[in-house]
Specification:
Mean pLDDT: 79
Strand content: 5-15%
Low-confidence stretches: none
Number of domains: 1
Radius of gyration: 18 Å
Strand order of the largest sheet: 2-1-3
Number of helices: 8
Number of strands: 3
Distance between the termini: 41 Å
């Protein structure tokens, strides 16, 4: 009962993390990807392009390119616009401007393995083959977000959206994003 009241109060005051239910503005730019697909690297690259006077680091990255899973709804609403928002959520039709980061799907489990091993979530000697097999079974069983990410990236490929050969041109376009004022 108490947790329910606390949660309701946080929501009423805008102190909850909105996640996928954030308020979306027409000038928002979203950096989307499946976890361990290069979102952080892309986020730092874009933050350094858009805010050259403020070198991006882990102490300020949520201020420069916020994550709706990490900041409150109130903090997101107060951010200068246009906002460049990072998310591991799959594509939402409300997002009008999207930078979708796609990584070779064979590399994602290996990146996740090394990330979790570094965080000591399992023994350092745990075999990578066993980790990947367990991950595959979990993804097949649960589907969910990974399937939605895959559908969107396949749609992008089917529509012949920019690929690696055009990444330099895309970085040039990203560098032209308007810099938030305020």
């Amino acid at each position: 009962m108490i947790q329910w009241l606390i949660g309701g109060t946080r929501r009423a005051l805008g102190l909850h993390h909105p996640g996928r239910n954030l308020d979306v503005w027409p000038d928002d730019v979203f950096i989307l990807s499946y976890p361990k697909s290069g979102n952080a690297r892309t986020r730092f690259l874009i933050a350094n392009l858009v805010y050259p006077e403020t070198p991006a680091d882990f102490s300020n990255i949520n201020r420069l390119t916020p994550d709706p899973e990490a900041l409150s709804k109130r903090a997101l609403a107060r951010m200068p616009r246009p906002r460049i928002i990072k998310s591991h959520q799959y594509f939402d039709p409300r997002y009008k401007r999207v930078i979708y980061v796609v990584r070779d799907p064979r590399d994602v489990p290996l990146s996740q393995y090394h990330f979790q091993r570094k965080r000591r979530l399992f023994d350092a000697q745990y075999p990578v083959e066993k980790f990947v097999t367990r991950l595959q079974k979990r993804l097949v069983k649960n589907g969910g977000r990974v399937v939605k990410h895959a559908r969107y990236s396949w749609r992008l490929l089917a529509e012949r959206h920019p690929n690696r050969r055009r990444s330099r041109a895309m970085l040039g376009r990203i560098a032209l994003l308007p810099i938030p004022t305020g």
